[in-house]
Amino acid sequence: MPAFRTLLTPLAIALGATTLASAAAAQSSGPEIFRPLDPAVSDLNSYRWDKRVVLLFGAGEDDGTYTAARDQLAAVAPALEDRDIVVLTDTAPEQQGAIRQGLEVDGFAMVLVGKDGGVKINSAEPVSPDALFATIDAMPMRRREMSGG
After folding, report:
1. pTM of whole model > 0.90?
2. Which residues are within 8 A (CB) of 44 and not within 5 positions of it... i.e. 6 or more apart?
3. How far apart are CA 135 and CA 61, in angstroms?
4. Exposed end of the chain (fewer CB within 10 Å): N or C?
């Protein structure tokens, strides 16, 4: 029995490592929903008509309001992907990013930009995923997407 156990331990470790590597590869091969917002970017034209954008601003990486909002969104990542949402994050106010300055963000802000480039939500408080999805799902473009048109 001890010989059998010594064979199983390396096998279990190897299988576990393979499973972890496969999971990491699958995760990295999928689309990046969360992306840092480059401070030099001054418009979101590259996303227009292709993606809805949630801009998530924080006073820093450890800003509790920012991390709570980010974690809520991360928990519903498949629903974000289904609605063609990309989340652009900016937690460096000291870099004076062009979009942060243009929106006059001081501290936390959560902004939803539609595929047409228009601001649909601009909030100094976290917006729940349910409220975010309700806003998006009421949009005519999203209704056409849901009906297959």
Report:
1. no
2. 53, 88, 99, 113, 117
3. 27
4. N
